[in-house]
């Protein structure tokens, strides 16, 4: 554990040295990274990727990539050309996917035994595909120069056991975000909250003050969080980390969500809706809807909030100023303020990091050593240098490679310094990577989440079941999956 804390401190120190850039996926790897243009390709090979024009047999590397940033997919042709210019014998064939159908497309290909060589996914999905035997361990192929280009902490998230399964694109922090004007109208000292955090009770009272009613109708909510579609698991995952459960498994590998603290968080989830601070129809609000509600002034605070949302709000503000009809319909000017998730039950605040990136897959047959090396070159090409610099700048996330930082040195980023400092605080207590969790346990936890937690959470949000009902369902399923001795009993 001490080693993990040191690597996290390392990435934080690196982050603090970046004057205009901070941040960091599940947004990264989030399914809502929609705020910025993307790379136009790296013009020259990074030192660690090998010399351009090197000889070798012709080979094609396939990649399944979602819209990492607003125009990321628009640049696929250029990215492929730039890669081919570096490696004339290699072809990078990119298949686009939306965030909504990314998992389905990938799983279809995986189940058919012919996945892409590279897929952009969240690191939390690695254990699932390792369990299926469809990921390619590149720990023996990634060059020392490639590894040395990275900050240690985010690279840890791409590991499972001793295996390395790709390169991270960024380290993103999942937070929440507020409308500065509304926060100040409600008397909330948001600068103090950014620095010192807040408890659940403080947060609950604050969002009550953000509610604005017109008769019986709520014109503005205090808090809205996307809980439908691809964001269905985010809300609970972010909250429980701040209730003494930084991971689904304790350090001694017991399943954590059978803790009594889990039940208390479920009660609080329901309480905020019953207070009237959150919409009764919360279970039907997806990522697009909640962001629209923020831009149109229908909520004071939104979640999950990513660093890139400041950029999205700024761009919409510019469109409003231009009065050219391109702004979101009915939107108002909004200064986006990064805020931490509240802490529960006297537990320390733990930020939820999302490290998303270019994960390396294999088919049913063992790949040749040459093809494996070519896949590594392609994954590193996408995750470093100019491509990483432009993407991360536009997502307002920290650079995690030296080549990315160097390429970004001449790029300008218009960032609110208070938000920059707030993300630095969040990074300082981000949950560490857990490559020690065995593959089979990680896969079982994902299965339990998909089959029990997400459906029950939707029912709880819709007021169809009580918190106690959901807790008992999760506890029963966990004991069945992990055994009585394999779960937390407190």
UniProtKB/TrEMBL annotation:
Residues 25-58 are annotated as: Disordered. It comes from the Bacteria. Keywords: Signal. Transmembrane segments: none annotated. Residues 1-20 form the signal peptide. Residues 35-55 have a biased composition (Low complexity). InterPro entries: Bact_solute-bd_prot1, SBP. PANTHER family: ARABINOSE-BINDING PROTEIN-RELATED, DIACETYLCHITOBIOSE BINDING PROTEIN DASA. This is Extracellular solute-binding protein. It comes from Cohnella xylanilytica.
């Amino acid at each position: 554990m001490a080693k993990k804390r040191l690597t996290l401190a390392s990435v934080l120190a690196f982050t603090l040295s970046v004057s205009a850039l901070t941040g960091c996926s599940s947004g990264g790897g989030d399914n809502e990274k929609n705020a910025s243009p993307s790379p136009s390709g790296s013009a020259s090979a990074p030192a660690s990727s090998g010399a351009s024009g090197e000889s070798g047999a012709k080979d094609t590397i396939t990649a399944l990539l979602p819209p990492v940033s607003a125009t990321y997919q628009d640049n696929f042709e250029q990215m492929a050309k730039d890669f081919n210019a570096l490696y004339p014998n290699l072809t990078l064939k990119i298949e686009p996917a939306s965030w909504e159908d990314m998992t389905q497309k990938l799983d279809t290909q995986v189940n058919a035994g012919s996945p892409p060589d590279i897929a952009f996914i969240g690191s939390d999905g690695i254990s699932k595909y390792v369990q299926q035997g469809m990921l390619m361990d590149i720990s023996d192929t990634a060059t020392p120069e490639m590894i040395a280009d990275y900050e240690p902490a985010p690279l840890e998230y791409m590991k499972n056991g001793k295996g390395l399964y790709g390169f991270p694109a960024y380290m993103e922090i999942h937070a929440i975000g507020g409308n500065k004007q509304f926060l100040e109208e409600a008397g909330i000292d948001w600068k103090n909250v950014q620095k010192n955090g807040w408890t659940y009770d403080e947060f609950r009272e604050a969002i009550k003050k953000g509610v604005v009613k017109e008769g019986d109708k709520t014109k503005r909510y205090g808090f809205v969080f996307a809980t439908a579609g691809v964001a269905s698991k985010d809300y609970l995952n972010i909250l429980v980390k701040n209730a003494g459960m930084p991971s689904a498994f304790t350090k001694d590998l017991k399943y954590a969500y059978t803790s009594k603290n889990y039940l208390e968080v479920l009660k609080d989830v329901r309480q905020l809706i019953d207070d009237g601070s959150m919409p009764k129809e919360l279970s039907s609000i997806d990522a697009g809807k909640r962001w629209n509600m923020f831009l149109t002034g229908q909520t004071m605070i939104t979640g999950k909030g990513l660093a890139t949302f400041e950029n999205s709000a700024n761009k919409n503000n510019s469109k409003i100023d231009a009065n050219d009809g391109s702004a979101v319909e009915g939107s108002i000017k909004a200064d986006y303020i990064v805020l931490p998730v509240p802490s529960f039950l006297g537990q320390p605040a733990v930020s939820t990091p999302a490290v998303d990136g270019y994960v390396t897959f294999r088919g049913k047959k063992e790949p040749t050593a040459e093809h494996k090396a070519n896949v590594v070159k392609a994954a590193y090409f996408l995750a470093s240098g100019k491509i990483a610099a432009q993407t991360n700048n536009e997502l307002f996330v920290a650079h995690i490679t030296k080549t990315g930082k160097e390429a970004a040195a001449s790029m300008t980023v218009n960032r609110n310094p208070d938000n920059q400092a707030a993300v630095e605080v969040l990074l300082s207590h981000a949950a560490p990577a857990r490559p020690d969790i065995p593959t089979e346990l990680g896969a079982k936890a994902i299965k339990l989440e998909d089959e029990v937690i997400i459906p029950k959470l939707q029912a709880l949000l819709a007021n169809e079941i009580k918190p106690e009902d959901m807790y008992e369902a999760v506890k029963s399923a966990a004991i069945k999956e992990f055994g009585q001795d394999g779960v937390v009993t407190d």
